[in-house]
Specification:
The protein has 434 residues and is of the alpha+beta class. Helix content is 28%, strand content 21%. The radius of gyration is 22 Å and the shape is globular.
Length: 434
């Protein structure tokens, strides 16, 4: 089977870099990266600097493609669909065939993935999202992930998922993310998995279990949902008209579904098995292996700013009054200040390097003075090559990305070695496919 992939919400290319590090001939035939409302598309232009551009579906070179503007039938055929899509509101208010059918401005991006599944039926899908996806929204826990699983089930896919703390599998950052691996029921892999019990797939034989071994599990839960199988419905009908029955399934789930998804699980034909697993941990990379020595003076904290940093990082209890007059106490615990170099880093956010409670502060190994992370150190936390985000290709010219945007791109990125771990298992799976 050809190793051809499409990368959605590509950022600066974490999925692609992770797969290409395998040296097993993965090719990317098309990608989409678009930051809504931004005149300059820095992430896209960084991606193009490293990998080159691709013709968009109107045979023009991309300047950043908003996937919602693309006719999904024109997306190239592919073996693997990848993407780190935003965690927003996936609820369905009306029929999906209606332009008013989706609640949540950015949540519409899940339906763009669904439309590609409808149009192209890729054999394999690998997606990344935040860990809270499994529990959102707070008012109806598990609904959003349930809608995603139902969308896959309608189209004839089985789904494995795991919440991975990257530091537990050797990385330099305690970043927890949900990874979703789906596969078409017509693949040889699906036929092999159909002969196994769900708990065996989750703990031993599935892609997630092999990429991220465990030492056991607890708290297993079983559930199900009803769905209409539309795997064989005509593509044009699905994309232009929709099917009332399948849309109604998702609308009903929006109103009624909730379930206690745990950090590992498997779904087949609407049957859910989920459990909490115990990782077989690999020693993490520590911050002292990531930080540079004696960096430029601009990264160091000024003495006059030290009191405000100390306050932000400290524990606090603050009396507040809500808009309706209710009095309460806002409290938060302390954050290590500075971040210890003998531990992996905390989760990096897009606000990294700003004067913010979540920003990492380290003691420079050469002087002991407190400072921000450098852009290179931020890249290392995510497993990218040094200076990966330094340059962009804009209108054929190489330009430097602004420092602030380099941190922003890394805060949005995934931990590349986690993709390589899953890709190595997928390579073995493809050896048995036609």
């Amino acid at each position: 089977m050809n190793k051809n992939m499409v990368e959605l919400f590509a950022g600066v290319g974490g999925f692609r870099l992770g797969m290409e590090r395998l040296d097993s001939n993965w090719q990317t035939s098309w990608f989409s990266q678009w930051e809504p409302g931004k005149k300059k598309q820095w992430a896209h232009d960084c991606y193009v600097y490293h990998f080159g551009d691709v013709k968009d579906l109107a045979n023009e070179y991309t300047t950043g493609v908003d996937v919602s503007s693309v006719d999904k039938r024109n997306v190239p055929d592919h073996t693997l669909l990848t993407g780190g899509f935003p965690c927003q509101d996936y609820s369905v208010a009306h029929s999906l065939s209606s332009s008013k059918g989706i609640e949540g401005k950015k949540g519409v991006l899940w339906w763009q993935i669904r439309d590609i599944l409808i149009a192209k039926r890729p054999p394999f899908v690998l997606l990344e999202n935040v860990d809270r996806l499994l529990k959102s929204p707070a008012s109806q826990r598990g609904r959003d992930f349930g809608i995603i699983l139902a969308s896959f089930a309608q189209l004839g896919y089985r789904v494995e998922w795991r919440v991975i703390n990257a530091a537990e599998y050797g990385a330099a950052q305690r970043r927890r993310r949900t990874f979703i691996f789906a596969y078409n029921e017509k693949t040889e892999y699906a036929k092999m998995m159909d002969d196994l019990e769900p708990n065996v797939i989750i703990t031993e034989n599935g892609l997630m279990a092999k990429a991220f071994p465990i030492n056991g599990y607890k708290d297993i839960e079983i559930g199900n949902f009803e769905f209409t199988d539309v795997a064989d419905v005509d593509v044009d009908t699905m994309l232009t008209v929709g099917t009332v029955e399948s849309d109604d399934d998702l609308i009903n789930m929006t109103r009624n579904f909730k379930f206690g998804f745990m950090d590992a699980g498997y779904m087949i034909n609407g049957e859910i098995t989920t459990m909490k697993v115990i990782p077989e941990e690999i020693a993490p990379t520590l911050l002292n292996k990531v930080v540079q020595h004696g960096v430029d003076e601009s990264y160091y904290i000024r003495q006059e700013d030290m009191p405000s940093w100390t306050y932000m990082k400290g524990a606090k209890k603050i009396p507040r009054t809500s808009a309706n007059g209710h009095s309460y106490v806002f409290s938060e615990g302390p954050i290590a200040f500075p971040d210890p170099l003998d531990r992996p880093g905390r989760t990096m956010l897009t606000s990294e390097s700003t004067k913010n409670r979540s920003t990492h502060i380290v003691a420079d190994p050469s002087s002991g003075r407190l400072r921000l992370l450098t852009e290179v150190e931020a890249e290392r936390l995510q497993g990218f090559d040094d200076d990966w985000t330094r340059y962009c290709l804009v209108d054929g010219e190489t330009v430097e990305m602004p420092k602030r945007m380099r941190y922003f791109c890394m805060g949005n990125a995934l931990v590349v070695p986690m993709i390589t771990r899953m890709g190595a298992v997928l390579d073995k799976i493809l050896e048995k496919e036609d």
